[in-house]
Amino acid sequence: MSTKRSIFEDVGRENGRAAPAPVGAIAAKSRGARRGIRIWLWVLFAMVVVMIAVGGLTRLTDSGLSITEWKPVTGVLPPLSVADWQTAFDKYREIPEYQLQNKGMSLSQFQFIYWWEWGHRQLGRVIGLVWAIGFAGFALARRIPAGWTGRLLLLGGLGGLQGAIGWWMVSSGLEGERLDVASYRLATHLGLAFVILGLIAWYALSLSRPEAGLMQARRWREHRLRQLGIGLAALTFVQILLGALVAGIDAGRNYVDWPLMGGGFWPPFPFEMTPLWRNFFENDALVQFMHRMSGYLLLIAGVGIWWRARRSANAATRGAFAAMLAMMLLQMVIGIATVLHGAPWHIAILHQLGAVVLWVLVLRAVHRASYPLAQSVRGTAGAVR
């Protein structure tokens, strides 16, 4: 005869046995993988930022052409003897930079610039190794969430492509009469670095929330604000590329007045090179003018989109766009200071790192508009990540 069960009896047990684990336990396991991958991605992000800073210093110290060969494997070893150093130095003395600019350089001076470029290349190898170890570890442990394997592989592929583009850039300065690398190749190299940074940041932001939470957040997506944010991100990327062109020809060290250029709004001799297209890449007056005008346009667009974002019902989204605008204003101030001081290395690097922060904040604002954080009546329920 069956006994009566109280309506208050623990319904989590049946026939004296514990009920199966709730679905939430499986989700918790998945969250662990997302957390670990997110940490790994932020480590990669920090390393790429350091790589950009070291690359900038390598350029500012005119060290980028000191290693005249690309050896992806054996290049990990620097010269280990006096004879090896002399061989490397002899190869450097054959390129235009030495013959036209650094003729008479001593071996010790060569070693200084060599170590900068060697360190830059080794850091790239270490980043690739950290990616490979991390990806292999998560893949072998089967801890990569569904749909994320291709995205993480993409990062590794872009990293490998970046190494090849880096050599393509360096090779442009090893022959002919060019003293530096081609500015458009430098812009391509830096642009891809920012693409990689942007993907890492976007992936990390997405992995900071459960997949189900992201799917639910799409229902509250602010489509118009998202579209405006994507347009702002594109304009920010163009400004970064123009900044790379400025750096590639040291245009920031000329026309050190502001808001005018050479005493006028329109700089002197902006189209003196032939053919005409060369001026857009190699004429310091025109390149710096384009960078300034693009910066003004970016600021106007940023203010307008921030004003539009003020109408968002989501506090986290409003805060993301406000942070973006604050950084944009700060970056413009740093840019003006860079020009007025003739682009000394410490201000120039600060300006470059400011571009990194602005780029991430713009993408973060777009992410907030695309996947708004859950918000209670009193405000945002979740912590702003």
Automatic annotation (TrEMBL):
PANTHER family hit by this protein: CYTOCHROME C OXIDASE ASSEMBLY PROTEIN COX15 (PTHR23289), CYTOCHROME C OXIDASE ASSEMBLY PROTEIN COX15 HOMOLOG (PTHR23289:SF2)
UniProt membrane topology term: Multi-pass membrane protein
Protein name: Heme A synthase
EC category name: oxidoreductase
Required co-factors: heme b
Chain's gene name: ctaA
A family per Pfam: COX15-CtaA
Keyword field contains Metal-binding: yes
Assembly, per entry: Interacts with CtaB.
Lineage start: Bacteria, Pseudomonadati, Pseudomonadota, Alphaproteobacteria, Rhodobacterales
GO cellular component: plasma membrane
